[in-house]
Specification:
By secondary structure, this protein is mainly β. Helix content is about 10%, strand content about 50%. It starts with 7 loop residues before the first helix and ends with a strand.
Length: about 450
């Protein structure tokens, strides 16, 4: 049974309500007071603004190649837009560094602090006709791509007990608002977020954001976000069972509901079975769809994962229904797809049904700590095509290997290579594509 952890905020509420409790049985009052006496809060344990500060950096080098097959051209390039003959692939290489500073909170009942972020990236290799994977912003064929990008922002934060209010530049990671970090620099948002952890196991979030910056551009609001409002919570019912429910409304775009249930079943030593269910329900704004009729979408996935020692085996099913495919990333972040079958293809087209079989291996059990491998195969059918039939199909073979240096001067330096082979007849932007991404990352804790 999970025990609730009452905070100082709860203690204040209970003190105000003392006349009511005085009428209750003395034993119940004594029990409540005992719980409150055990209460603690993050703010009460604050060591100070500078004492709890952290300063970290992350340097990343990235190579990205996307090859359209069967004679297809790189229609995303400026060459295609200019009517030139584009190449059949996109290829970009770059280097970035980001610095993140997070202060502690001043001591006292109410704590104050700040966060700051700065990031910059430079292009190492690409050119006209070869751009098109979103690492740098694209311009005209004559002007080519940006050679560098940079961004800096900051936020102020206030904490009472275990509840924090943050205003300014942020990188939210919630199912309905999630920043993408798949290129050189992450997406960032500007707005206000309230995060509360007053009850142990329960996290409540509510926020409003009015600016969104993409991964490949400098500026304040390159994503053109009007506003997004969100609210929701996640709760751990037990150590092995948790759930979440979130709502978000992106102005003039769509309104989403998200739900999650996750259950972990320990079987024996180093063996477990995990079930993860995720679902989105989306109602689209007519200004976004350009239609006179309202449109909606429901997409869900269920994954079962069996872990035994260094090995893990996953089976998953994902299904999409409604008037259109599942849209995301339009103001709510490029990672707002907490679903099982999201790789190069997200398998999120209209009426699409997909199945996944995958395998994960941790080589630490074989004497190579830090080395891991994942392979996955996803196949799908029933995609609605332009001719109004449901004859569309696609399938993807995904592989990823990663190594993290475990000790020495280069500790935490990581190398990661991922590749996808995608084939299909659905006509989406990545059909019949080979893709390779390579990352070298070095994180450093300065404070």
């Amino acid at each position: 049974m999970q025990v609730m952890k009452w905070s100082a905020l709860a203690l204040a509420v209970a003190t105000v309500a003392q006349p009511v409790w005085a009428e209750e049985d003395a034993v119940q009052t004594e029990l409540l007071q005992s719980m409150l006496n055990r209460a603690g809060s993050a703010q009460a344990e604050s060591k100070g603004f500078f004492e709890d500060s952290s300063l970290t950096t992350l340097t990343r080098a990235m190579y990205y190649n996307r090859d359209w097959r069967n004679g297809a051209a790189n229609e995303r390039s400026s060459a295609a837009a200019a009517g030139k003959k584009p190449k059949g692939y996109a290829e970009e290489t770059g280097l970035s560094t980001r610095v993140i500073y997070e202060s502690g909170f001043t001591q006292g009942t109410v704590g104050f602090g700040v966060n700051a972020y700065a990031g910059g990236a430079i292009k190492l290799d690409s050119g006209r006709g070869r751009e098109g994977v979103g690492m740098f912003s694209e311009h005209s064929y004559e002007d080519g791509m940006d050679d560098d990008i940079g961004l800096a922002n900051a936020a102020v934060k206030v904490r009472v007990s275990n509840t924090t209010l943050t205003h300014g530049g942020q990188m939210p990671a919630l199912p309905v608002l999630a920043y993408d970090d798949g290129r050189l620099l992450p997406e960032t948002f500007e707005g206000t977020m309230l995060t509360s952890n007053e009850i142990e196991g329960l996290e409540i979030n509510a926020g409003r954001f009015t600016a969104f910056n993409t991964m490949n551009q400098s500026g304040h609001d390159s994503g053109g976000l009007k506003a997004i409002d969100l609210a929701g919570a996640s709760y751990s019912f037990t150590d092995n069972f948790s759930g979440a429910f979130y709502w978000a409304d992106t102005e003039d775009t769509y309104e989403k509901l998200y739900g999650n249930l996750n259950y972990n079943l320990p079987l024996a030593e180093e063996q477990a079975l995990n079930f993860d269910f995720n679902i989105y329900q989306t109602d689209y704004d007519k200004k976004y769809t350009g239609t006179t009729d309202s449109q909606e979408n429901t997409i869900w996935s269920l994954a079962a994962k069996y872990s035994i020692g260094a090995h893990a085996f996953i089976l998953a099913h994902q299904r999409n229904t409604g008037d259109r495919g599942y849209d995301y990333g339009v103001g709510d972040g490029g990672s707002t797809i907490y679903l099982a079958n999201s790789y190069l293809s997200d398998f999120n087209q209209e009426d699409e049904r997909s199945w996944q079989a995958s395998y994960e291996l941790d080589m630490a059990a074989f004497g190579v700590p830090g080395l891991s491998f994942k392979t996955a195969y996803v196949w799908a059918d029933n995609i609605k095509l332009a001719d109004d039939t449901n004859d569309g199909k696609e399938h993807e073979f995904f592989n990823q290997v990663k190594y993290v240096v475990q000790e020495g001067a280069a500790k935490d330096l990581s190398f990661r290579v991922r590749s996808s082979v995608l084939r299909g007849n659905s006509g989406n932007s990545t059909a019949d594509t080979n893709e390779v991404r390579a990352y070298v990352e070095y994180p450093l804790e300065i404070l």
